[in-house]
Amino acid sequence: MLVNLHADADAAHTERSLRGLGLWTQRLADPEGQIRSLRIVAPSPPVSADTLSGVPGVCSVLATQSGHPLVDAQAGRPVVVGNAQIGGGAPALIAGPCSAESAEQVFAAAEIAAAAGAGILRGGAYKPRTSPYSFRGHGPDALGWLREAADRHGMALATEVMSEYDVERVGDVADLIQIGSRNMQNFALLRAVGRARQPIMLKRGRAATVEDWLLAAEHALDAGVTQVVFCERGIRGFDPAMRNLLDLGAVALLKHVHGQPVIVDPSHGCGRRDLVLPMAKAAFAAGADGVMVEVHPHSETALSDGAQALAAEELQVLASQIGVQS
Ligand code: PEP
Ligand code: MN
Fold it and tell me: Are the C-beta atoms of 109 and 101 separated by less than 8 Å?
C-alpha cells in the first residue's frame, strides 16, 4: 500500500504515526528529494485504507495488493521485437534450431523459418545442458552466425543468455534475450540483464508456480528490463511419457486474468515433433500470443533436441494452420 502526503505534510510526523500503528514504511522522494509518499512494506500487519486515510498528513491511499505492480503495468501492451511483435492480435511465430551448430546449419534453419513466415529467429549460442559432456554451444561465434542469418531475412533474433558475464555480448546481438527455464529464478542474472534495457523472454522454471514466475518477471522489470514475454515450456510432471507437462492452464491465466504477453514452447513441452502441431494449436486456443518451435535442416544429425525438431514442410504446415502468413 502507498500513502500520498499532503503538500504541506510533515513526513516525519506522518511516519511516526504510522509506526505507532505497527507499520513499517519506506520513503519515496520526488526528484528534489521531497518525501511525497510512504510505502507500507513487510512485515507490517494488515491495515485498511480507511485507517490510513485518518492518519495526519495523509492525502490519499493507493491500495494495491499485488506483489508485482510492474508486471501488472505491462498488461495489454504488445512487445515490439525488432521488426516483429508479440501480442496485439497477429499470431507470432518464433522458430530456429535448438543449438547453433555451424554457420551453414544456422543459415539453413533461418531460411526454413523465414520461408514459413516466422518473424523471429531463435537459436542457442549458449546451451544449458543437463550433462557437461553434451554439446554446450559455440558461444560468441554462434552469436555472429545467428545475427547474420536473422539479418539476411529481415528477422528479429532471440537467443539465450546463461551468465551475468555475457549479458552485454548477448544484448548487443539479440532483439529478445531469452532467460532459460533453469535460470528463471537466477536473480543475479535477472538483475544483470536489466542493464541491457531490452525485452526478455522468461521461460518458466520447471518447478515454478505462476506466482514465482510473475515475481521473477517483477525482478527483471525492476532491474531495467523493458518488457517481459512469458514463455510456458512445461513443468516437470510425474509421467515420463512426455518430456514435460505443458501447462496451458497457466497460459490462459497469464493471458486472460493477468493480460500478459505469453508464448508457448511446445517443442520442449512435449519433446516429440509429432505433438508440436496439436499443442501449438492448443496454445492459441488457450490465449497464447505466439509459439516458439525448434526446426533443423537435418534433425537426424542434430547436436541437441533432434527428436523434437520440425523439418521445413512440417513448419510450413504449422505456420499455415496457426494463421501465419508466409
Ligand atoms: C531452449 O529453449 O533451448 C531450452 C533449453 O529450453 P528450456 O530452458 O525451456 O529447457
Ligand atoms: Mn532445445
Answer: no
- Residue 94: DSSP 8-state: E
Query: Residue 158: what are its φ and ψ, rounded to 5°?
Result: -115, 135
Please report which ligand is nearest the Cα atom of 181.
1
What are the start-end ranges of the H helices in 32-90? 49-53, 69-73
9, pLDDT greater than 80: yes
Instruction: Report CA Rg, the chain.
Output: 23
Confidence of residue 26 (pLDDT cuts 50, 70, 90): confident
**Cβ(316)–Cβ(278) below 8 Å:** no
Ligand nearest the Cα of residue 182 is: 1
Residue located nearest, by CA, to atom 10 of ligand 1: 181
**Nearest CA, atom 9, ligand 1:** 181
Q: Measuring CA to CA, how many Å separate 235 from each of 18, 179, 202, 238, 288?
A: 43, 16, 14, 10, 17
Return the closest-CA partner of residue 122 out of 15, 244, 22, 263. Answer: 263
Distance between alpha carbon 27 and the CA centroid of its chain, in Å? Answer: 30
Mutual angle of helices 103-116 and 312-322, in 10-degree steps? 30
Bridge-based pairing of strands 58-62 and 2-5 is: antiparallel
Query: Which pLDDT tens digit goes with each residue over 243-256?
Result: 999 999 999 999 99
User: pLDDT tens-digit profile of 75-91?
Assistant: 999 999 999 999 999 99
Closest CA to 296 of 94, 154, 92, 99: 99
Cα 28 to ligand 1 centre (Å): 39
Question: What is the SS3 assignment for 203?
Answer: strand
**If you take atom 2 of ligand 1, which residue's CA is the nearest one?**
180
Q: Tell me the three state secondary structure of residue 192.
A: helix
Q: Taking CB atoms and a 6 Å cutoff, what residues make up the pocket around ligand 1?
A: 98, 124, 128, 180-182, 203, 233, 268
What atom of ligand 1 comes closest to residue 233's alpha carbon?
Answer: 9
Grid cell locating 180:
532459460
**Residue 171 and residue 150: Cα distance in Å, rounded?**
15
